[in-house]
Amino acid sequence: MANLTKCINMMDEGIGRVSMVIPQMPAAEARLSRLMLMVGSSLEEELEAKLKPHKLNHSDFLTLMILYSRPDGHSTPGELCEFASQGATNMTRIANALVKRGLITRRAGEADRRCVLIHITAAGRRLVQKMLPPLFPRISAMFAGFSEADKRDLNRLLRKLARNLDQLSKEAV
Amino acid sequence: MANLTKCINMMDEGIGRVSMVIPQMPAAEARLSRLMLMVGSSLEEELEAKLKPHKLNHSDFLTLMILYSRPDGHSTPGELCEFASQGATNMTRIANALVKRGLITRRAGEADRRCVLIHITAAGRRLVQKMLPPLFPRISAMFAGFSEADKRDLNRLLRKLARNLDQLSKEAV
DNA sequence: ATCTTTTATTTCATCGATGAAATGTTTTCT
DNA sequence: AGAAAACATTTCATCGATGAAATAAAAGAT
User: Fold this and answer.
1) Same-domain status, B71 and B123
2) A97 and A80 in one domain?
3) Three-state SS for A97?
4) Tens digits of residue pLDDT in B126-145
5) Residue A10's closest CA among A33, A42, A44, A35?
6) Whose C1' is closest to the CA of A106: which nucleotide?
């Protein structure tokens, strides 16, 4: 929808001109950040579009996937907040919606009774198993033309970038 | 804020377990998509945090930067919609806010009088020139430890990914 | 035993984004 | 000239996200 290539071209020209006026700008790095932002949000759009028919948004889906991918299919709201990068208010709302659809259940915690144990249900598992396979061709197509070395490199570089971002936000305190 | 590394670790374990249950999943590619999404949104958070003190969000800032980086400092709403990936309604709202702050002006188009010409003002330029330099150290820090080859690779791979995403959304019609 | 902290929810108010539909100009088509 | 298309705005209704504050229950600290 967004025509990424066209946006990237115009970004390239723009950064070129700005760095003429402001030479101390780290142009290569600025370009990389913009690329990350553009490709990232395009990917997000693509994903949301595929989730829409199932009446799930990214946060809902991510929450469900975290539970699905857990050894015992459960977690707590606090943990889900952390891994899905959501506030507590938001997670309560998400959980309410998923409970209402019968995809998860809430129980009282056993060890620590302050916690709530959120379990994925059989229906939740079935939904995930129905949703995932149709995504596979598109996920593969995204990386068409990537050699094994390309994938390894991208993987390595994204993780390195992630570590740097963590470092940045840690210092920001 | 999000502790990206921790989220990535849990994603790795999760994908490992899911691909045991669903072996036909393209695990490496799924991992890469998740990485892109996570790093992308972390980057977005980082950027928004830096913009907040100036009372600008990402869309506002992007719109202003597009104008700033233009040879003649102007564009039209339609063009801005395209390059900032915004709907027309949204762009009208953004432009209203920027006009109110004196950062841009609206004029009637000369060649095509249906179009509106949006110009960045002197105040708009001053704001951009004041905002950018403090961002530079952080942009550089994001890519700390990246060799020149790393940056070239990341650049190349992101552009390749972008082309594939464009292809995907074109086919989706 | 009391105080504090942790955990989750509820309530409330707000903000930005979104999309559809109607409107008004201006240009283009035929 | 008249019809159709393009451009931008306005209006309206809605939705998801957000954050602060109050509440309640349980665990931990001293």
Assistant:
1) yes
2) yes
3) helix
4) 999 999 999 999 999 999 99
5) A35
6) C8
For residue B97, the enclosing domain spans 58-128
Strand D-proximal protein residues, Cβ less than 7 Å: A 57-59, 86-87, 89-90, 93-94, 112-114; B 76-78, 81, 88-89, 91-92, 95-96, 106, 112, 114-116
State the number of CA atoms in the 13 A half-sphere of B125 facing the CB: 14
Block residue for tokens 């129980």: A107
3-class SS of residue A106: strand
Can you give the CATH number for the domain in which A68 is found? 1.10.10.10
Q: Does B41 have pLDDT greater than 80?
A: yes
Where among B36, B54, B72 does a domain terminate?
B54
User: What is the distance between the alpha carbons of residues A173 and A171, in angstroms, rounded to a whole number?
Assistant: 5
Indicate whether B120 and B158 sit together in one domain. no
Asked whether residue B133 is assigned to any structural domain, the reply reads no
> What distances in angstroms separate CA B27 from CA A9, A132, B16, B60, B155, one per listed residue?
31, 12, 8, 37, 23
Q: How far apart are CA B68 and CA A165, in angstroms?
A: 27
Q: How many domains does chain B have?
A: 3
Give the model's pLDDT for residue A173: 53
pLDDT of residue B47: 93
CA of A102 to C1' of C8 (A): 20
pLDDT by residue (tens digit) across A10-55? Answer: 999 999 999 999 999 999 999 999 999 999 999 999 999 999 999 9
